[in-house]
Each structure stands twice: as structure tokens, then as C-alpha cells.
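User: Predict the full complex structure for these chains.
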Amino acid sequence: MKEIVIKTEKLTKQFGNFIAANEISFEVYKGEIFGFLGANGAGKTTAMRMLCGLSRPTSGNATIAGFDVYRQTEEIKKNIGYMSQKFSLYEDLNILENIRFFGGIYGLSRQEIREKSEKLIDQLGLEMEVKKLVGELPLGWKQKLAFSVAILHEPSIVFLDEPTGGVDPVTRRQFWDLIYEASDRGITIFVTTHYMDEAEYCNRVSMMVDGKIEALDTPGNLKMKYAANSMDGVFYELARGAKRKAD
Amino acid sequence: MKDVVLSNIHKTYKGRDIPALNDVSFETGEGELFGLIGPDGAGKTSLFRILTTLILPDSGCAKVCGKDVVNDYKEIRKIVGYMPGKFSLYQDLSVEENLNFFATVFNTSLKKNYDLIKDIYIQIEPFKKRRAGQLSGGMKQKLALCCALIHKPKVLFLDEPTTGVDAVSRKEFWGMLKALKEQGISILVSTPYMDEADLCDRIALIQNGKIMSIDTPHSITLNYPDPLYAVQSDQMGKLLHDLRNFREIKSCNAFGDYHHISFVSERKETGNELKDYLLKKDHSNIKLNAVAPGIEDCFIQLMDSE
Amino acid sequence: MSLHEVQKEKQIKSKMKQFLSFIKKEFLHVFRDSKTMLMLFGLPIAQITLFGFALTNEIKNSRIVVLDQAKDIASQEIVQKFEAGRQFTLDRTLNNPNQIEEAFRSGNLKLAILIPANFYEDLQHLHEAQIQIISDASDPNTANTLTTYASNILMDYQLELMQNAKLPMSIDTDIRMLYNPELKGATNFVPGVIALVLMLVCVLMTSVSIVREKERGTMEILLVSPFHPFLVILSKAVPYFILSLFNLGVIILMSVFLLDMPFNGPVWLLFAESGLFILTCLSVGLLISNSTKSQAAAMLISLMGMLIPTLLLAGFMFPLENMPWPLQLISNVVPAKWFYIIVKSIMVKGLGFAAIWKETLILFVMTILLLLISYKKFNIRLS
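Assistant: Here is the predicted structure of the three-chain assembly.
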């Protein structure tokens, strides 16, 4: 029996008359790479905010790393990591300062921060750049660093919101190497992406259409079911039927 | 006549050591749909800004429709259409107000060039009273395209029009570009999505301010130096790792549900040796097929060889 | 008409059309943004209310005590004068200096007046006598206002004495003034508020709205258009010019009808001078927008660089005469200082253009200089 780290039951978020997320139910297992796909405006961001404890659901239930999204949002925040394309690190701090800052926020001891930052810098090959401001790094390096910082405190789940947007193809693959490594260590990866080849790298993929989860399975099964030879085809098949086109 | 001519363009921003553009030269023909393919920070936006007379190159010469970007900037501003990377319309004005405003700025009217934008405008017309800020991503993009087209430009510059847009809207957008091209407008478009390269007449692959390759997408893929194979097994993560440790491997990259590999030397037995090696590493359902390289394979290969 | 002329006329016509559509667009921006609207129309009303009523409202019937150790004609007359005014109510008279502190402690007491023994005799013979005023300074503003009232009463009395006796004599009152020394009222504040509001609206609004175009990327598109970029910016100035004049009308109406502010000079002159001042402010706004990239920076510079100097150095909050000379020198480059003098001269003193041509000239030169600098600094490209 696989250990469940995210469990949602009919999770719903309504803004006035608009149902952004409509009775979403799914489970994510420990160490799994879970792809969360959907067209713009399908409700991905809303759902992700609820799961991170940033937005209170209108109805339904969800537990994240064993904590309730209504009552235990503080515990949730301690046990997850989050990284998005837009904001992740302070551009006007250098690499070490960023690591120390975020380590401090998650309550790591000085000793831990020192050990972890050495390991991380070594792993990313950033020895020469530690004193460089993050703003001066190429985007791909920034994103790899941001991911490493997001899992610095060994969270049970890390949420990645389009982490590789605009990153070059080589660095993009290096980024996925990091994701695999984290997942091997037992960290659950919850990721959204616009690159359909990246959907293939996920263990399971869910497709959101008009606020609902229309499909959830392994990439292989999805391709079979929708008679498509790539995830691109699956996505197109599902998203084409969307009625809603709002951001 | 060549619509866009760049020769030996250099640009380094103040306070930066690395040049944003390093000796960039290329030409695009009349009525061509030319793609500039590269990741963020490759120099695409700098190039667009030089061509639209928004910034000056440090050295080199650039011409749009035979007019120099430095000296004849006023002329160029009359004949090009430009859609910046960020959505740049007035969010507090309605669709109609935005269109009318830009029409007047370009000394024309919605009616005058209606034919050109008709197909796109029809899709947003039902929302013409809605404020631009309240449109969905795809709709905003269509409105921005209409605004850039309203004065019937000779050359259209689109800086990452499909970034952050989902796969369905992206397909739609490329359909619109094709239709525009047929109306005789030259289009220069940039994108970080390698899979969009095939939709262009010719492309330039750009990385770190340098053009790595310019040609038709087909010729670029033909120029891939090695035979390429796709490998699959039941444990894709482990497979990647094991493949990299195989002595004959030259390159190995994940590509969706396959890994693309090339070998150091082309011997007949290498394929079988690899299969044996993988079986020993506990892989099952191993598939190994020759595969035609795509633009992304070429991009990676060019990046690695630089 | 030659073909060339026809073409030229056509060109001018289309330029006008472009310009007008720009202005229309700016008005739409203003009317659709509730924050801008609040700033534009809420601000003058709030300012007038704040400065006009709250800060200068008369304080009535404050309780005072008198310790009259002289008990002579003069001291009794003084006490009577205090009782006669509506500002003070005499709570009681004390006999012993020790009672003063106790009286203050019992609360509600604002002021104590101490008249020493032999007060009248000192006045008669030494031509000089002293009175001490003690005030509850826990509310410094009220305390100061009240001590000013009190010393005014004493001054009046002194004048009366002098007229009767034809002799120089003086009553020393031992008070130091910190705020609002001349007990300024609406007559002093309204011209200041006009300067302040015009400054805020014109500098802040124009600089922020231009920088907003840069921040949102619309400037990029406008630059890549046949429209001359400097016209983009000039067209921003027009709506704010009109709205500022409207604001001016509101302030004047409010101050004349609600605050009984006098308006003695010609109305057209005030509007003409305000027009000039608005131009000055707009050119400051342009200059700021030229050198900043974000709305936040534009706002900060507008506030720090313009609002605060206007408040401190225009002369309507704090008298310039009492300031150290470096500050007095700096105050000369604050446009609001000159405008403040102009408005005061027109509204309060009822003077005509002949009296203010110098200040007008200074503002005019400032405006031309600022416009020249911002035109020079203006970039036809990005950064």
C-alpha cells in the first residue's frame, strides 16, 4: 500500500457565481512526480493555492502531508516547499545569502544550513558563483537554485508552478534530473508545465478542464485511452472541449 | 528585397560583462515567416528592440525594409507592427477603445484595414465592450495582434507571443500567423518553444546572444551530425542514468516518453551491445529505434558543441 | 492652395486627431481608476477641511485660574478682560502660588495667569511689569493657541494704557511660541492648500501616469508608432491641467463660502497665475517621469522631492523669516513659495498684476527651464 501524502475529496472553490475548482478528488503518493496540467484558466492556480494552504476551500476536504487544509494551514506551510516561475529568490541577494535566508525561515540550525549549502553549491557546480547576486545568474541556473532552496528543509511535498518556462533545453533536462533525485529521496513533486514532453516525465498526470479533473492516469495509459501518440495529443483532445476561457 | 537585414550586431548592456548580442547577422526575405528560437535570456528581445528602433546597437548595422534602424527610425516606426513580450495594452480600456486608440495613433481607422484583421477580430468582437484586463490570456493575445496589425504593417515583429499560453491557444495562434503570411506580411516571431520551429519558413537558433544556426527547420534537422536513436524501457529514470554510464554513448537526453541517444562510433553491433547491457541492468521491455532528430535535438547538440 | 499646402493641412488635421484621441484616452484612465479619482477630488476637500477647520478652529470657553497678587486697578482690569472674551471662562481666583499645581492636577484647567504684587506700580513707575502665563502643555497645539489668545488680550490692554497715559510702557509676557505664531487662520492656509493640492495633483499624477506606461509596456508600442513620443507626454498634461483648474474652482468656492475666506483681487488673474503654476508643476512631473522607471519610485520622488519641501518651505506652515539662512536660500527654488505669495496677494490683499509681476516672472523662468531640461532628457528610445 502506497503512502498517501495529498488527498482531496470534492474540493471546491467558488468565487461568486464562478466555480474555479469544481469537486476535485484525487490522491498523490509519497515520492511520486505528479503532473498537474490544464489550459489557461482551467483552475490549476486556484487548486494549487488551496493545497498550499493559501486559499480556503468553499467546500470539500483535503489533507496535505496529513494536515487539514481548513484548520492546519500553518503546519502545511512548514511541510511543503513552493517554487514558481515568477518569484522564487531575492535577486539582490547573493546565492549564499539566499540559502541562509530561506534556511532560516524554515527553522534550520546554523550547522544544518552550512552543511546543506555546501552540498547544494557543490551539486549545482556553483562554487565560483557563491558571491554573485542571484539577479546576475542565467535563468536556468536561477531556477535550479530556486528548486534546491525550495527543498532545503526536506519538505514532504514540493509544489512547482511552471518551473521551467523559458529555460533552455539543456538546463531544462538538468532541472528534471534534480526533480528525479528529490523524488528518489521520497519528496513528492507536484508540478505544472506547458511543455508536454515534461508531462511524460511524470509518474501520473491529471488534466483539468473547466474546473474539473477530466483525466488522471499514467502518461502511457492516457495516450492509449485517447489514442494519441504523445501527451500533446492528449492535452489537445481534452482541452479542445473546454468552454471556459478565463484566466 | 530583403525585409530585415542584420549585419554584425553587437549589444552589451551597461554594467553587464556578457554581451546580450554577439555578432548577430542574418536576413529575412519578403513575406517570410521567420522564427527566432531560443530560451529566455538568449537575446531575442534585445534583437527585436533593435529592429523596432527601441534601443541602439553598440556596433553593426540593421535595416528594416531598406531603412536604417538608427538614422531612419521615424520611417521604420511607420511601417512595422510590434507586439512586445509582455501584454502591453491598456487594461482599463475596452477592446474597442484599445483598437480605436491604436488605429488613430497609426493614423488609420478600424474600417480601413478591416480585411486584414477580420478573421482575428471576429473572435473577440463579442467582447468588444469588455475591458482588456478582464480578457482571458488567449483573447488578450488576439487583441494585441489586432492592435499590432491595424495599420497594415509591412513587417510584423512578435516577441514571444505564445509564452505562458496553453497548447490549444498556441496552435490557434500559429494558425493565425499562417493566414497573415498569406496576405503578404513578413513576420519575425520569437519563441522559447522548440516545437513551434517547424511552423516557420526559416529559423535562427539563438543562445547566449549568438546565432548557432540559420536555415529551414528541415535543413537544420538534416544537418544533425550523428544517427539518433530513441530508447525506452520500464524504468525511464534509471534508464537515463544507466545509458549515461554506457561507454559508447555520446549524448543522451530525455525526450518525453523516450530517451534520445547517439553513439561515439557507428558500429553495427553497438545496438545489440546496448540492449545486452540494459538487460543486465534489470531493464525490461527495452525498445531501441532509429529516430529523426527534431529541432530540440539540434539545439541541444549545438549548445553542447559550443 | 498648392498641393503641398493641402497635404500639410491634412497632416496637421490628422495630428490633431491623434492628439485628441490621446487626451480622450487619458480622461478614460482617470475616470476609471477609483484611486486617481479619490486623489483628485477627495484630496482638495480633505485638505481644506483639515487646514481650514481642524487646525484653526477657535477654542472657546477654556477654563483658567488667576492668581492675582497685585489686586490693583490694572490687575482687575486685566482679569475683567479675560472674563469678557469668549475664549476663556474664569474658573476661580487663587490666593497662593502653591494652589496652581493643584488646580492643574484637578484637570480641565488650561491656563493660569499670575499677576505679581505691585503690578500697577511697576507699570506706572518702571514702565515695565511682568505677567506669567502657565499653560497645560500636554496638548501643545491648544496650549499655544490659548497662550496666544492670552497675550493678545494683554497686548490690547497695553495699547489702551499707552493711549491713555501717552507713555511708553510694556507688559512682559513670558511665553515662547512654537507653532502657528501669528494665530493664522483660513486667510493664510487656503493659499497654501491651493499650492499644495495643485502640486500634488500635477507632479504626482503626471509622473506616475507616464511611468505607468513604461511599466506596463505600452510605452514600447507607442514609441514604435509614427506619433512623436514627446506628444505622448504632452497629451498626458492636458487632462491634468483641466482637472487642476477644476480643483482650483472647488477649493476657492469652499474657502469663500465655508471658511469666509476673503477674495479681494480679480478672479481671472488668480486663474491665470494658477495656470502658470500648474504648468510649472507639470514640467516637474515630466522631469521626474523621465528619470524614473517604476511607479513606486516616481511616487516617492514626487512626495519626498516636492511635497515635503512645499509643506516646509513654501512659508504657509512655518514662517520662512525664522528659518536658518540655508533653508531660506533653498526655499527660493521651491515654486510653491512664489505661488503662495501670488495667491495671498491676489486673494487677501486684493492686489493686481503690478504687485506680483516679479513672482510671476520667476515661475515663468522656472517653467521654461524645467521644460527645456525634460525635453533634453527625453528619450526617443527605451532607456
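The longest helix of chain A spans residues 169-184.
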